[in-house]
Give the backbone structure.
Amino acid sequence: MSKKFKLGVVGNPIEHSLSPFIHSRFARHENINLEYQAYKVEKDNFNNFVSDFFTNPNAKGLNITLPFKSMASKINGKISEEAKYINAVNTITKFQNSLSLETTDGSGFMRDLEINNIKVAGKNILIIGAGAAVESILYKLVLNNPNTITILNRTQDKADKLQNRYVEQKKISLALPANKNFDLVINGSSAGLTGDFKAPGDIQISNKTSFYDLNYSLDTTPFCDWASNNSSLVYDGIGMLVNQASISFQLWFDVVPETKKVLEEIKSLKE
């Protein structure tokens, strides 16, 4: 019998994570024998949990979700340039006796945009929110040469910090531009999941604008409900979730899993 690899996702809360479902499907399609579990851990026990997890000789990797991505970037291991820059790690891989620390969120997001034929280069982008979800994608967005990125957030300090981090690129504004249509509107705020979504000010959009919610739900999110009144080009974060998971899976096993079937299976759960 083939070796059974031990993997999992760590977070708090973690009960509604789709990661075990996604990775079990990847493993089945790729004929890889693994056990992937969700682990709810308290903050003061996070480092001990990770250390103990990787003492198991079959332990191959961990996904890290909120609120531990920043803490994971401090773990002793080889951290990628992107993960170090954004101070967040969502994928840990064990190679012999050392750990590799990566973030796959930004790449998963960009891959999903590409799948949905959403262009970034030369486009005007509005981002609503400035929390951890936005930080996880901003590095890759900036690298893909948009014309402008406007960030609107209820707490000005957080938006200021993001702008200052990318000040050399001169791409990010914190005020709505006059007479400029947005090509892509990204929601990274918690308003995407709670109550009715209200647009932050008089934003310039059209029926050609694409809308992307970094949040995901088996129900339609309030942001996607609102966006659907303005455009048919509306997407939630499930595509990003599956694509970032596929990149994690590739880091662990050096194979690129099929994502289309898994996305179809998740969409069937919605129905």
About this structure: Residues 238-253 form the longest helix (16 residues).
